[in-house]
Design brief:
This protein has helices spanning 3-13, 20-30, 49-53, 56-61, 79-85, 89-97, 105-113, 130-138, 167-181, 185-193, 228-241; strands at 38-39, 42-43, 67-73, 119-125, 145-149, 155-158, 200-209, 217-224, 246-253, 259-265, 271-276. Strand 10 and strand 11 form a beta hairpin. By secondary structure, the protein is an alpha+beta fold. The protein folds into 3 domains: 1-75 and 118-181, no CATH class; 76-115, no CATH class; 184-276, no CATH class. It has a 5-stranded antiparallel β-sheet with strand order 8-7-9-10-11.
Length: 277
């Protein structure tokens, strides 16, 4: 998979809202968050908060109760490498930058963040979802802070001050943490056993390349148990759409200590799900 494709999917998979997996499955069908960055099917760059929140008039015209919110923050430059390369991220990063292989993570961060600038984006925010989406975004910044404007002036979100109390936000926080902060299979599957809701599972998935270009991918993803096979099918269709030839193998854990295995082959179209009771 190309680096550009991975970045697109990385951004795609972190469009987080309450009922996180419901929205994720809808995104697999329609990428509705594009409503805040497209006009008449013409993509354009949102450079200011005024340009972003102006898109709310378009949503109202469509009868959409969601909002376009302008987010800005200092993005952690290491997160992509950790998600892309797992335990080997530091070695690969040091080699790519010409650093000594024994350099510490703290030294790398210092080098990269001394003069780092804020990055902006215009988020599609479903009604009532801003807190959990802001939390997700805060995990991608170096200081845990996100500035945002949904049309009522700029405000600041600090992840240290986010303490969810309702059931939906608690499970969404757990799903987000597992996705963004699990870089190894051990950590990923452990996060599944600690979920507060037994309707969900966390899966360590490896996409094995079946063609001559690209690299194998290993990542941690949340799934709803009841729609696991359906989600795999949608992801396979997305791979096929981009002509990506992969065998995707997932091992999943939940708070019932049950291990589920799922897989698909984007070339043959075969999908398998096995539950070990």
């Amino acid at each position: 998979m190309s680096k550009l494709k991975f970045l697109i999917l990385f951004i795609f998979f972190i469009q987080v809202v309450p009922n996180f997996l419901d929205m994720l499955e809808k995104e697999l069908d329609g990428l509705s968050y594009n409503k805040c960055i497209k006009s008449n099917d013409r993509p354009f760059y949102i450079e200011t908060s005024a340009q972003c929140v102006k898109r709310n008039a378009f949503l109202l015209k469509e009868g959409d109760s969601s909002k376009c919110c302008f987010y800005s923050g200092k993005i952690d430059p290491l997160l992509f490498y950790k998600k892309q390369y797992g335990e080997n991220w530091k070695k690969i990063f040091a080699q790519s930058k010409g650093y000594d292989l024994n350099i510490s993570e703290e030294e790398i961060k210092k080098k990269l963040t001394e003069n780092i600038e804020e990055r902006n984006n215009c988020q599609y925010v479903m009604k009532g979802s801003n807190n959990i989406l802001l939390y997700e975004s805060s995990l991608t910044t170096i200081d845990g802070i996100v500035k945002y404007d949904c049309g009522e002036g700029q405000k600041i979100f600090n992840k240290k001050e986010f303490h969810p109390t309702n059931k939906e936000e608690i499970i969404d926080k757990q799903l987000i943490d597992s996705f963004l902060l699990s870089f190894t299979e051990k950590d990923c599957l452990k996060s599944g056993t600690n979920l507060s809701d037994d309707n969900y599972q966390i899966c360590w998935c490896e996409k094995i390349l079946l063609s001559s270009e690209g690299i194998n991918k290993k990542n941690c993803f949340p799934y709803r148990i009841s729609t696991f096979e359906e989600r795999l099918k949608k992801e396979m269709i997305l791979d096929q759409k981009y002509n990506e030839k992969f065998e995707n193998k997932c091992t999943c854990s939940n708070n019932k200590n049950k291990i589920t295995k799922g897989s698909y082959n984007s070339v043959t179209g075969e999908i398998k799900v096995e539950i070990n009771k």
